[in-house]
Design goal:
heterodimer; A: 343 residues; mainly alpha; MetI-like fold; 14 helices; globular; B: 289 residues; 75% helix; 0% strand
């Protein structure tokens, strides 16, 4: 099977998976959570409820409701978000860029720290350095997110502030007072990018400072995974015959490692980092809510704690969509990178 | 014949144990895990389990002292006692979620991988739906329908966890089913269920040991996270995540409330991860040196 045939097959299957997800979300939003919740308050007159039900199509049989639901989904008519006080799709439009910005920042840290650590670990296999790096990366995958986030907040924001030292901002995306003084026009929604191209360096640096703690939190959790994969694939590659050949030719060790070994050792890392990025996009739920970072994850936590069904379901559909899409992309890129893979 | 096989197996085991013992990281991880198992088994005898349900407001939010080495929480309960009592709950969650999920994973994955074809296609697409669906939302739905409790937290985690195992087990079964011993069993007309469970399963589950050990830590972490955002058991059922989430409210007033349960989670997970990491080195001969 050729790569494009495989891709088409995968996209075809992807549609089935997404349909399955919508059946689940439909079930949850109709049976578990009450779809009326977003439109009915304590001040709604009881006699007005049937009219609302009729408008939402809740008086029709389930299969017709599901078709209406799918129609709304495709036309981006995603309902009213009670927690954001605006249509869900608008709320996502404002909040998704914040999540993307945070994801990019932590992704950069993950790759810049994780990959070199893995390579060092492999080159110094079974030494003290290797053990230290392994403990560091295992700690990363063993630490509770909320605990790390709150500890960082306490030690880099609260303690220095109490002691009168310069401290890192611990919540929000930008200082609100500063933002009022130097407003930024929204272009992409990525605040640092927008303020930089408008020459607003004050907001850019403030937004960057606000990113440090949440990005560090998210990064520390995933550095371990990248380090482990980079280490084991580097070890594997270094044992290959072509590396021995390169060494036998008398090539300098630096060249053997950085020119010949690294290229192949990075294939599994690429796959993993794609999946990691997808995971970051689909919501750093706990981190965002602790750092009051106005992204999609924070909105979801608000929505969950007040049973806001439309917002929860929008998040679910979006997160599942990102997940399947990233998986598909990773598989295709993997096949491109490693020509030995056949389908 | 049998005794020779047993002898070979014992020799293998002995060799593996020697390798594991030489690895200091594994030994320290193993000690950590044993410590938590000890706490889980004997916690109720070390401290009075009624402390979890007691309320002592005059002693609330006391910083660490000789009397209360880890301080007291907002109900005046000693945090040492609380984290010791919680060990039982957290290890129970981890063990039961892992066992139940691998059970479901084996059932689904074996049928899918062994029979293949349309059955495989249908089962795997359903599995994909569960893999793609955000676990948090599933957990929330369960908490909404069934209420917030200890058992429901476990149920939510199992529903989230099984799909990954099903996919791995399917892969294992696909690679095993083409091997000569399966063909031989088929020729001898051994029933399918017997081939699956008696012949393929022991070979297929072996590489899962590492994943299962490391996932013990993963389950504890996820359970703690779910408790933290309020989908866990009530504050009177001590669980590290819910203890810590109480502490988040008092972060600046009484940081010890969140600090010590968090440390317990960290070390329990680190213990399982160290053991799993070492197991991987031993089980995978390519990594031995």
């Amino acid at each position: 099977m050729k790569l494009y045939e495989y891709s088409i097959r995968r996209i075809f299957l992807l549609i089935f998976v997404l349909l399955g997800v919508t059946i689940l979300t439909f079930y949850l939003s109709r049976i578990v959570l009450n779809p009326l919740g977003a439109y009915v308050t304590e001040r709604t007159r009881p006699e007005a409820i049937p009219a609302i039900e009729k408008r939402l199509g809740l008086d029709k049989p389930f299969y017709i409701q599901y078709i209406i639901y799918l129609q709304d989904l495709v036309t981006f008519n995603w309902g009213w978000s009670r927690v954001a006080h605006m249509p869900v799709i608008e709320a996502l439009f404002y909040r998704f860029p914040a999540t993307v910005e945070l994801a990019i920042a932590s992704f950069i840290i993950i790759i810049l720290v994780g990959v070199p650590l893995g390579i060092i670990s492999a080159l110094k296999n079974n030494s003290v350095v290797d053990h230290a790096i392994r403990i560091f990366s295992l700690t990363g995958i063993s630490i509770p997110v909320f605990w790390l986030a709150l500890t960082l907040q306490y030690s880099f924001s609260y303690l220095p502030k109490v002691a009168g030292l310069p401290s890192l901002p611990s919540n929000g995306r930008v200082d609100a007072l500063l933002y009022q003084q130097y407003p930024v026009n929204r272009i992409t929604g990525l605040m640092i990018f927008d303020s930089l191209i408008q020459g607003n360096f004050i907001i850019a640096s403030d937004a960057l400072l606000h990113l440090i703690l949440p990005a560090m939190t998210l990064a520390f959790l995933s550095i371990g995974a990248v380090t482990r994969v980079a280490r084991s694939s580097m070890l594997e590659v270094l044992r290959q015959d072509y590396i021995s050949t390169a060494r036998a030719y008398g090539l300098p060790e630096r060249m053997v490692i950085y020119k010949y070994a690294l290229k192949n050792a990075m294939i599994p890392v690429t796959t993993l980092s794609g999946l990691l990025f997808g995971g970051l996009l689909a919501g750093a739920i706990i981190t965002e809510s602790i750092f009051a970072f106005p992204g999609m994850g924070q909105l979801t936590v608000f929505a969950i704690s007040s049973n806001d069904s439309y917002t929860i379901m929008a998040f679910t559909v979006l997160a599942s969509f990102i997940y399947v899409l990233i998986n598909l992309l990773v598989d295709i890129v993997y096949a491109k990178l490693d020509p030995r893979i056949k389908y | 014949m049998k005794s020779r096989q047993t002898r070979m197996f014992l020799m293998d085991l002995k060799f593996a144990l020697t390798l594991l013992r030489k690895n200091k990281l594994v030994v320290s991880g193993f000690v950590m895990v044993l410590f938590f198992i000890f706490l889980a088994l004997f916690g109720d005898f070390i401290v009075d389990p009624n402390i979890a349900k007691s309320v002592d407001y005059p002693n609330a939010l006391k910083p660490p002292s000789w009397e209360h080495p880890f301080g007291t929480d907002d109900n005046g309960r000693d945090i040492v006692a609380m984290v010791v009592l919680a060990a039982k709950y957290d290890l129970a969650i981890a063990l039961s979620v892992i066992l139940a999920s691998i059970g479901v994973g084996i059932l689904v994955g074996s049928v899918s991988g062994y029979f293949g074809g349309i059955i495989d296609e249908v089962i795997m697409r359903i599995t994909d739906i569960f893999l793609a669906f955000p676990g948090l939302v599933l957990a929330m739905a369960i908490a909404t329908v069934l209420g917030r409790s200890f058992t429901n937290l476990m149920l939510a985690l199992i529903i989230v966890w099984w799909s990954g195992y099903a996919r791995i087990m399917r892969g294992q079964f696909i690679s095993e089913r083409e091997k000569p011993y399966v063909a031989a069993a088929k020729i001898l007309s051994v029933p399918s269920w017997r081939i699956i469970f008696r012949h393929i399963l022991p070979n297929a589950i072996y590489p899962m040991l590492v994943v299962l050990t490391m996932d013990m830590g993963g389950v504890i972490l996820t359970a703690a996270g779910l408790s933290f955002i309020g989908l866990g058991p009530s504050p009177f059922e001590p669980e590290w995540g819910s203890l810590a989430s109480r502490g988040a409210v008092y972060l600046f007033q009484a940081p010890w409330i969140i600090f010590f349960p968090g440390i317990m989670i960290l070390f329990a997970c680190l213990g399982f991860n160290l053991v799993g990491d070492g197991l991987r080195d031993v089980l995978d001969p390519r990594l031995r040196r």
